[in-house]
Every structure is written in structure tokens, then in C-alpha cells.
Amino acid sequence: MIRAYKFLMRPTVGQSIALGEMLRDHCGLYNGALQERRDAYRHSSKTSIKYGMQSAQLKDIRAFDPERHGRWSFSSQQATLRRLDKAFTAFFRRIKSGDTPGYPRFRGANWFDTVDFPKDGDGCRWDATPHDPVTRVRLQGVGHVKVHQHRPVVGKVKTVSVKREGRKWFVVLTAEQEQPEPLPATGSVVGIDMGIAQFLADSNDSFVPNPRHGRRNAARLATAQQALARFPRVRRKRTANHRRAVETVAKLHGKVRRQRLDHAHKTALALVREHDVIAHEDLKIRNMVRTVAPKPDPETPGSFLPNGAAAKTGLNRSISDAGWGVFLTILTSKAESAGREVIAVDPRNTSRRCPECGHTAKENRTTQDKFHCIACGHSAHADTVGAVNVLRAGLVRHYANTA
Q: Is the backbone of residue 121 left (phi > 0), alpha (psi -120 to 50) or beta?
């Protein structure tokens, strides 16, 4: 299996400058390759430039401008061109499927924060000597950079990536390792129901509170964004005060992101340690957070009727703040490593179906958190009812797969 590791780098002042120049030059290569593809298509719609053609030009580009492109790893530059090729592949795939195309865009200086090295030892070297307390990573054109390795890397390092987050630099490794030993079986199964009032409810009538990290930091974030908005648009990139305002907003967003990740990791780890089978709703989060379509007024051309957009915007913000997608991704990854089974089931009518008699009706759910079956009179918390129904649907799939 492949596992990723992320460590904080501690570069010197000179190495930080070199890392910034590496990102800038790779960003220029990405934008230049994108411009070449755009020009070729505008000249002739039948002309198409692929990755292989642009990769073959790298040797001449490095020889023509050795100060800007020749000092960096050839393989990392190929990875940057491959990144652009993936963007175009996804663009054409979305066109064929009828989705919003999203043509690849040029990257600004703050929009290009990662440089990939496809192979350890080719332009980079992960140097973790067992008897040396200091870990370093060697990067071509930068040197040996100290790394704060807070946990050991198990397996053989395959790829290395350098990532910038604000003023901090990180190295991201992918290592190939054997499948770890599964955790001891507990004989327990559980179904979970994701929510807004509670982060999740399980089939054992337990709840995990929703921390609402985004809402807790909303006031400070609004203040920082208002301070940033005061700078004139023409002079925004020319003052040190503007850069500090940008960094303040970025730090607040980064703090909220780390808090969400921490909560998701701890919650997922607790579920994986306690249960052998975990069933959850197969939520289409992207569809759930879509904006409401406008409702034109047929009697008054050019005007619109109320469509509940304000309430839907608040709901979308709460769903995004909960971070369901990140949590489910982490849960699946931890379950795979621990030998647990995670099952996604159809969420339709899970909170409307009575777990006692099976009667399904919209009237069964009287409020957001109350369930009362109009057929048999069974009452319970609505999220607990949903978790029980999710568990039953998950067990049906579990036994069908093992049969």
C-alpha cells in the first residue's frame, strides 16, 4: 500500500529564497506550456499539443535559459508539464460528460505552491540516517534542507513533493509499504448518520458534537478580510501592509483547516478502533451545497420571486464547515490500514423509515431531531433512527459480499 507523510521543513534564509525561486520558475514553465497550447488551438483548431511534444522541448529550454530553468531538476519540470496535461485531460472529460468544463487557467505567484519530484533520488534525496538526529532532504538547486521528522517513515520512499503554506515549507513523501497487521476484531458494527446539529450520530444512540470551527472563527476572519479589503485594488501588490493582511487571512483559514483535520482524524480513529464494520450514507456533497436557481417572476419581467437563497446559503456554509467529505476520506483510509470495512449505502429515506415497523413517510419526522412513526407510534431521535437504518442497509451489503 502507499502511505503519505507530511513534515515541516526548516530552511535557512538562503534556502527559503531558493525554494521561492523554484516555485516561481516552475510556475512560469506551467504558464508558458499553457500559452503554447492556447496559441496552437487558436491558430488551428485541429492542432493539438500533447505532453510528449512539450517534454521534448525541455532540453532546449534548459540550454537557452540555464539560470532560470537549467538549475532545477529535469524530472520535476516534467512533472509540472504532466500536471498541466492532467488538467487538460480533466477538462475534456468534463466536456464529454456534460459538466461545467472549467478551462485550465494561468497560475499566479500565489496559486502555484507545489513542486513534485516523481522519484526519490532523481533531483531529490530523502536522507533519514537512523543514527543522525537531524533529518534532511536534498533538493537540486536548493541544497540539504533540515526537516522536522515527527514520526518514522515506514517503507521505501517513492515520490517527494515540496509544498508552501503561507510562510511555512513542507515536504510530502509517498512511501510504499506492506499491508499492516489488522487490528484485533471487536465483533462490533455501527452505522453513522452525518448531520449539522450533531457532527454524527451512531446506531448505538451516541453523538459526536459538531465543533463548528468555521463559525467560531468567523468574527476574526471577517475582521481580517475587511482590513484586507481596505487596500486600493491598484496598490494591493505594492505594499508590505497588504502582504501582512493577506498573511493574516491565510493564517486564520489555515487554523480552521487544521482544526477540522484534527477533529476528523480523532473521530475516525475512535470509530476504527471500536468497530469492525462501519456503514455511512453515500452523500453527494457537491450536489448538496449547490446554490439555489433563481426564480423569475412571470408577471414582472426582469424581477425574481423569493427562492430561499439566504437560508440555502447558510445551510451550504454549515455543511462545508462540518467537513463531511474530508472526514469520510480519512475514515476510509484508516479503515483500510486497520483491516476494517467501510460501507456506503443509499441515503434515501433513512431518516423517514421506522426501524420498528418499516413504515416510510415524510410525516414520521416531525422536527429536525424528533422521529415519531405515525403507524406504530415509535419515537426516537431522528439522527439515531437514520443511523440504525444505515447500519441495516450496510449489513445487507456486507453479508451479500461475504456470501
A: left
Radius of gyration, alpha carbons of the chain: 26
57: its cell numbers: 522541448
Residues 6+ away with beta carbon under 8 Å from 80: 26, 29, 30, 33, 115, 116
Cell matching residue 359 = 413504515
Q: Could you please report the per-residue DSSP string of 105-174?
A: ----TTS--EEEESSTTSSEEEE--TT-SSEEEEETTTEEEEEE--SPPPSEEEEEEEEEETTEEEEEEE
Say if CB 115 and CB 26 are below 8 A apart: yes
Tell how far CA 291 is from the center of its chain: 21
pLDDT at 277 over 90: yes
Give the domain ranges of the chain. 2-176, 189-402
Q: How many other CB atoms sit within 10 Å of the CB of residue 89? A: 11
CB atoms within 10 A of CB 315: 14
Eight-state DSSP code of residue 69: I
The amino acid sitting at 202 is D
Average pLDDT for 93-107: 91
- The torsion angle over the Cα atoms of residues 268, 269, 272 and 278, rounded to 10 degrees, is -10
pLDDT tens profile 29-68 = 999 999 999 998 888 766 788 999 999 999 999 999 888 8
The answer to whether 245 touches 224, Cβ cutoff 8 Å, is yes
- Give the integer Cα–Cα distance in Å for 374 and 128: 65
Q: How many CB atoms lie within 10 A of CB 260?
A: 19
